[in-house]
Amino acid sequence: MNYRLIALDVDGTLLDDHHQLSEKTIQTLREVHQAGLRIVLCTGRGPGSAIPVLEELGFEGVLITHNGASTVQSPGPEVLHTIGFPMRELEQLVLYCRENHIHFDVNTSLELFIEKADDEVLGMYERFLITPKRVEDVLVMDGTVKLTMFGTGEQLDRMQQVIGTELILPDTLHSIRSGVEFIDVISLASSKGNALKQLASSWGIKPDEIIAIGNYYNDLDMIRFAGLGIAMDNSPDDVKEAADETTLSNNEDGVHEALLKHVLAPLTAKRNQ
Q1: For residue 222, what are the domain limits?
Q2: How many domains does the chain have?
Q3: 3-state secondary structure of 122
Q4: N or C terminus: fewer CB in 10 A for the chain?
Q5: Which is it for strands 78-82 and 70-74: parallel, antiparallel or unpaired?
């Protein structure tokens, strides 16, 4: 198969557990790019913390951010497509988070806002290269594309139970577990898979010409949409079962191994024929 587009999740996939890119992975992606394939980062991060990863790879181009709620072009960044919602639709959720001391932030296409944060939360933002802006009341904001809740795995397991029982989201929104410590609320129309489908169509790229690699539940529809969907070995079993195959973990250069197998090795063999 002649693949034309590589869609890559960032945290837990492209980056190791220390949020670092390995030199082996960087070199492999550069070789894939030089071979003419498009590299698209597809992440729950916003542009401010995703673009530095793209720049470290040495690339410019399009990124799918906020779990599909915003597609942006770098340099710029220029917002190409976004799906937002009024913050008042999440009033009950915000009130619950305030009352139960669940940290949350609110994102526009390009910026992230918080009402307050302790040192642990600020340390989390620093790890993800984020400088949050402070507002008194997120409920008066406009241009929202995502609300994210952050906490321990146990706290967010409880939040998943609360959403849909004690708290009912509007039928235009949905929640998605984007990491052990994160739950995102975005438009029902927003997902990595939907954004990838729209982007690939605009470039005239068919699903069977796409490889998508991810490691968590927010990657599922992207993995299913692509002609070849690959799960990292550090993925939950549900994600592995949805994928066409599994590669090594994010701490073992799994992205490198997958692209070597499915892109670089076939290209080398073709050239040697």
Answers
A1: 5-82+191-271
A2: 2
A3: helix
A4: C
A5: antiparallel
Query: In whole angstroms, what is the distance from residue 221 CA to residue 194 CA?
Result: 8
Q: How high is the mean pLDDT in each 10-residue block of the chain (273 residues)?
A: 95 96 97 97 96 95 97 94 96 95 96 93 91 95 95 92 91 92 95 97 98 97 98 97 98 98 90 78
Mapped onto helix, strand or coil, the DSSP state of residue 27 is helix
Instruction: Give the bridge partners for 144, in sequence order.
Output: 85
The amino acid sitting at 236 is P
Length of the chain: 273
Catalytic annotation present for 9: yes
Q: Of 9, 11, 184, 219, which residue is the catalytic one?
A: 9
Q: Are residues 76 and 126 in the same domain?
A: no
| pTM of the complete model beyond 0.85 | yes
What is the radius of gyration, based on Cα positions, of the chain? 18
What is the DSSP pairing of strand 5-8 with strand 210-214?
parallel
pLDDT for the residue 161: 92
Bridge partners, 5 (sequence order) = 38, 210
